[in-house]
Structures are given as C-alpha cells and as structure tokens.
Specification:
The protein has 16 helices and eleven strands. With 511 residues, it is of the alpha+beta class. Its EC number is 2.7.13.3.
C-alpha cells in the first residue's frame, strides 16, 4: 500500500485500504467457512488490480499455502490452486497487457502455484500425523492402559485443578481386598478381568463423578461433587457397602475425605482418605480374623466333644454290661466289682484331665530356677525309670536360669514328657536332659533313644485325644502344649525312626 501510494499507481486508494483491511480481518475468524478461501482470493485479486502492482506473488503464494493447509479435501485444493494462478495471470494481463506478458513468466507462475499445492499437502499430511501422534502420546500419558481410566499422575493433576477452582468434592479411594489372593489362586488374567469389570461398574454406578481413576495396582479413585443432601450420601455408602461388592463378587474397602470439610489441600485430602482406607482395611482384617478364630474354636470344641464322648462311651459300655450281668445273677457284683471300679476311675481321670485342659484357671507366676524344677522331676521319676530299666542323664547349664513360671505347671510339663519317654523306650533306655541359654531364652531338651514317631503321627501328637497307647487318653501332650503357651514359650519335637525323639522347649528368661 505504501509503495503504490508513493508511485501513485493505485486507481482508488480508499477502496484499496478497505480491501486490505478486509483481507486482514478474514484471518481473524475462528470458524472455518467454505467461502472464506474464495473471499480471500477475490480480495487479493482486487488489491492486485486496483494497486496495479505486480509484487503480490509472495502474498498469493502464502495465502494459498494457508488455505490449502486448512483444507482437508484434496480436490478442492487443486481447484483453489488453479484459481489462484488464473486470477494472478489475469491481473498481470490486465495490468501489463498481452504484449508485455512473457510466456516464460506464465509457466514460472504456474510452476510456483503447483509446487505450493504439492508441498502444502505433503507438509499438511506430515504435520497432521505428528499432531495425531502427539495427541495419542498425551492420551496415553493420561490414561491407564488396562482399564481406560485416568492414571495415578492424571488423578493428582485433576484433583489439584479442582481444588484450585474451589470445587467442593468428595474423594473416595477404593481397594479391591481379595484381588491379590485371586491373582495367586487363579492367575493374573482373572485379576485383570476383575479390574476391567470394576472400572466399567464404577462408571455406571457413579455417573455424576467429576472423574474416575485407577489409583494403583488394585486401588481406584472416584471424585464426586460435594452435596449437602443426606440421602445422596446414604446412596453413596449403599453403593460402596453393598452394590459394588455384590456385582464384582469380591470384598472391597474404601476411605472417604471431602473438600473443604476435611482438608484444604490436595495432600491433606489424600492423606486423610488413605488413613480412612487403612482403618477400614484394619477393621475388615480384624473382623475376618475374629471370624476365623471363632470358627477354629468351634471346630476344636467339636473335636473335643467328639473325643470326650468316644472316650467315655467305652467305660460306660463296660459298666453297663457288668450291671446287666449282675442283674441276671441277683445283683451280685462281687466278681466284677474291681473291673467296674477301674472303669469308673478311668472316667474320673479322663474327666479331670479334660477339665484341666479346657477350664480357664489362674496361674501363679513367680520367678523360679528351671534347674530346680528339672531336679525335682528327676527325683520323682528316678524310681519309675529304674523299674523300667532306664537311666536319666542330666546336663545342666553353668548360669542360674530363672524363669517367670507357675512351678507346679512347669513340673507337670517336664514330668509328663519324661514319663512318655520312659514308656516309649524298651529296656536299658536312656533319657537325656539338657539346659542351655542365650541372652534372652532358656532351652530344655529332653531326648530318648526309643523307636521314634512316624512322620504321619508326628503332626498329630499335640491334637486332643490322639494317642498311640492302649490306655492313654490323648490329652497329656495337649496339656503340655497349653502350659508352654501360657508361659510364652515354644514347644517343638523332632523324631527319627529307630533313633529316638527330642522335645525342645524354649522359655524367655526372667528380666
């Protein structure tokens, strides 16, 4: 415009200024209209003709480049390029005349516009592909590849953005409690299926969510708008407590925190939700453990009742039989009196042992020397061991070994194990007793050189009513195990057929 004004070549300067302003304004429209490229071409053509200036070729080429780049239809692009060339050459003809129009110039202009069209489409295709790849990378950086939900990083970014906008919200962290066990038992494919199903169900149940994300391996985050309606909060908890576990078939736990009621920053909100989630998981774990413990107790009670009934039924049957015989003989029980009394004593002893095993009782804990307890046991068993033809060898520790104990229970424990060892060995057997200690514990080892215990029986010797003796009740070692537990100790047994058996008992030293 400045050039044409200085040279006075413009036919109508105000109109030329208006056309230039119209040309510049056409690029300000955001919406793509099909007529806009043709309007620009018409404007440039008029500017070219009114200004009588042949220096507009770069403007033609740049505008054509822009319009072809934004035009996705390839056929329209070639039509537009041909129209640009035609308008440009027509203006050159009108300004210079046919005699001044060199054909080499015409060919050169056509080559210019054709090259622009080809290069523009190639550039457009390359840039479009790069833009698509960029969008895909951005999408993958936001989404979890398995579920299609937002990932951990994107959930933090969006939560931060919502809090910055002062948006009232409720953050829910959901943990799939049974998923790890399912991965172990049924494989990762089953776990991945549950995760996909969980993602779909969350999108269905929480349609009004601000966003839903996979927060971790088996955790999800749901962000809901904060509402004051109590029924909405009840509906939310109903979905989490009942509907979601039923639909997925797995147990879930969750933690909830709301903004701005519970926290004013993203970190505070997440920390509170994670703490609430941990508390819920702990409560769930404790309830499950309590249920398992209750089931174990019921199972043990059932085993004890079954064993007790079996053990008592035998002597009762014997007594009943003798009474029936005595009735037939005029109630003269003299011949069977001793046998009946033996069976009654057997039931009495069995009942006493059972009560000792099952009845809770107070234990008088005091600090005593474990060495003194072993000496008392040896004194009590020495005559019986001699009667069987056995020997008891004792290797005591150098230091005094003091243990917080109930002395009577401790003697009963050691006496029972030594007695079992003497009964298990054949003639000329040896029972070895040894005391050792370290900084915290004292260990009692009682070993015999008897026939040993088979492996399938070794796992059952502490079970109530399990015995290999003809006259045993099967409660002796169970009582021993309970005494060790009451003293915060451990009881282990090692046995090898043909070599013997070792009982290893460990107690904490008294402080």
């Amino acid at each position: 415009m400045l050039y044409t004004t200085i040279l006075h070549t413009s036919i109508n300067t105000p109109l030329q200024i208006l056309l230039v302003l119209l040309y510049m304004t056409s690029f300000r429209f955001q919406a793509k209209h099909a007529a806009m490229p043709w309007l620009r071409l018409l404007t440039i053509g008029l500017i070219h003709y009114i200004g009588h200036l042949n220096l507009l070729l770069p403007l033609y080429i740049l505008t054509l480049f822009y319009d072809i780049y934004t035009e996705e239809n390839r056929k329209k692009s070639w039509v537009l390029a041909a129209s640009y060339a035609l308008i440009f050459l027509s203006n050159v003809y009108l300004i210079k005349g046919i005699y001044d129009l060199l054909w080499i110039y015409v060919v050169e202009c056509l080559l210019h516009f054709t090259t622009v069209a080809l290069l523009t489409k190639a550039t457009y295709s390359t840039l479009k592909q790069a833009d698509r790849l960029k969008k895909e990378r951005y999408l993958f950086s936001q989404q979890d590849s398995l579920t299609g939900l937002y990932n951990y990083e994107e959930s933090h970014r969006r939560l931060e953005q919502l809090i910055r906008q002062k948006q009232g919200l409720v953050l829910i962290l959901i943990d799939c409690t049974d998923l790890k066990a399912m991965n172990t038992s049924r494989g990762f494919q089953a776990g991945n299926f549950i995760l996909k199903q969980m993602a779909e169900l969350l999108q269905i149940l929480f349609k009004d969510a601000l966003f839903i994300a996979r927060y971790g391996g088996d955790e999800f985050a749901v962000v809901m708008p904060l509402v004051a309606d109590q029924s909405a909060n009840s509906s939310l908890k109903l979905k989490l407590d009942s509907e979601l576990p039923k639909l997925t078939g797995i147990q879930i736990t969750y933690g909830i925190a709301s903004y701005p009621l519970d926290g004013l920053t993203k970190d505070d909100l997440i920390l509170l939700a994670e703490n609430n989630l941990f508390t819920k998981k702990r409560e769930s774990w404790l309830n499950r453990e309590e249920h398992m413990l209750r089931s174990d107790k019921l199972r043990v009670i059932g085993e004890l009742a079954s064993g007790m009934a079996h053990e008592i039924r035998n002597p009762l049957t014997t007594v009943k039989g003798f009474l029936q015989i005595s009735k037939a003989n005029g109630y003269n029980i003299e011949n069977w009196y001793s046998l009946i009394m033996e069976e009654i004593d057997r039931m009495s002893d069995l009942t006493g042992e059972f009560l000792q095993f099952s009845k809770p009782h107070s234990i008088d804990f005091r600090v005593y020397s474990l060495h003194e307890c072993v000496l008392k046991v040896i004194a009590l068993m020495e005559s019986e061991a001699t009667r069987f033809g056995h020997q008891i060898h004792y290797k005591e520790a150098v230091d005094p070994l003091l243990v917080l104990m109930d002395q009577d229970k401790m003697i009963q424990l050691l006496l029972n194990i030594v007695k079992n060892a003497c009964e298990a060995m054949e003639e000329n057997g040896v029972v070895h007793m040894q005391l050792t200690s370290d900084a915290k514990n004292v260990t009692v080892v009682i070993a015999d050189n008897g026939p040993g215990i088979p492996g399938e029986q070794l796992e059952k010797i502490f079970h109530p009513f399990f015995t290999t003796k003809e006259s045993g009740t099967g409660l002796g070692l169970s009582i021993c195990y309970k005494i060790v537990q009451d003293h915060q100790g451990t009881l282990e047994v090692e046995s090898e057929l043909g070599t013997g058996t070792r009982f290893i008992i460990t107690f904490p030293l008294a402080q």
